[in-house]
Specification:
Number of helices: 9
Number of strands: 14
Largest sheet: 8 strands, mixed
Order of helices and strands: EHEHEHEHEHEHEHEEEEEEEHH
Shape: globular
Distance between the termini: 52 Å
Strand order of the largest sheet: 8-9-10-7-11-12-13-14
Structural class: alpha/beta
Strand content: 25-35%
Length: about 300
């Protein structure tokens, strides 16, 4: 029996909703030993850390100096770059929540720091690890994709501060579109509306990809219930996935009389965040490129900023 390598000393920066989720999941993965939690509010940091037998710290300097092997950065977007670069320069592998950074220049700084220090920089595009997205990718393998339609809507989130729906929600779907097609988005046609918030809370985004695929994202914070659906049309199939129930259905074999066949596609039950963190550990252990690279994060951010007219 091979012995498992010593666990990696892990720190989680940011003890908000996502940071707490990361801490909960990482604590159950034997590749990690969660040793530090950073939050600018010392009581929050200590409270979350105590649940996992970790140390709470309330300054970035203390976190960077904590002797970590790897860190998860789940702080507000505008702080991602400075903290990640400081960690990477200290020899710490970094998984940064999406979007990678607030600006393209910041994202580039992070990518350069990872390369210069030979460290993993992975971006937390968690929907890539959703079993339903994986099932759709398998179902369309070898098919000629025509179009992709994604709906990601829901009520206004109480915790939103600095960003609108494009940065908070559509970045997930921009990544899914790039992941499913293996192609880059070359044209964007955004329609944005602001109804209840300081930033856009409704967006209809149309894209054309380098390989000719067209895609459409509907996203908002004005729908009273949550919907997360993905539809992919190919020359031979129409595949529909519910990203919340993870039910995936394939429609195919349409006949001249309008009849067609359907089949359910298996999507294995798994927590996407756990799969994401396991992929992070694997990239650190093997030295292979992570499944979602800094460049992926940069491309997703670039497209989102173009949709906002800021790219």
């Amino acid at each position: 029996m091979t012995s498992h390598p010593a666990p990696l000393k892990l720190g989680v920066a940011g003890a908000g909703v996502m940071g707490r989720n990361h801490a909960r999941v990482a604590a159950d993965i034997r590749d990690f030993d969660l040793t530090h939690v950073l939050d600018m509010d010392a009581l929050t940091a200590e409270g979350v850390a105590a649940a996992y037998g970790a140390a709470g710290v309330s300054s970035a300097e203390a976190f960077v100096a904590a002797g970590l092997d790897c860190a998860i950065v789940a702080t507000p977007n505008r702080t991602h770059a400075d903290l990640s670069v400081a960690l990477l320069e200290k020899g710490v592998h970094v998984l940064v929540e999406k979007p990678i950074a607030a600006t393209v220049a910041d994202a580039r700084r992070m990518i350069d720091a990872a390369a210069a220090n030979g460290r993993v920089l992975m971006v937390g595009q968690v929907e890539r690890f959703n079993p339903a997205v994986e099932a759709v990718k398998r179902a369309i393998a070898g098919e000629d994709v025509i179009s992709i339609q994604i709906t990601r809507v829901g009520p206004f989130p109480p915790r939103m501060g600095e960003v609108g729906v494009v940065i908070d929600l559509a970045v997930h779907d921009i990544d899914i579109i790039r992941h499913l097609t293996g192609s880059e988005i070359v044209e964007v046609q955004p329609q944005l509306a602001r109804t209840k918030a300081d930033r856009e809370d409704t967006a209809l985004l149309q894209f054309r990809l380098e390989n000719g695929v067209i895609a459409h994202i509907t996203t908002n914070w004005v729908t009273p219930y949550k919907t997360r659906t993905l539809q992919v049309a190919t020359q031979n199939k129409f595949v529909v996935a519910d990203l919340m129930t993870r039910q995936v259905t394939e429609y195919f074999g349409q006949q001249p009389d309008g009849s067609y066949s359907t089949r359910g596609v298996m999507s294995w039950p798994a927590e996407p965040l756990k799969k994401e963190l396991e992929a992070f550990a694997r990239a650190i252990r093997t030295g292979e490129a992570p499944e979602v690279t800094g460049e992926d994060g940069l491309r997703n951010l670039e497209v989102a900023l173009r949709c906002l007219g800021e790219g």
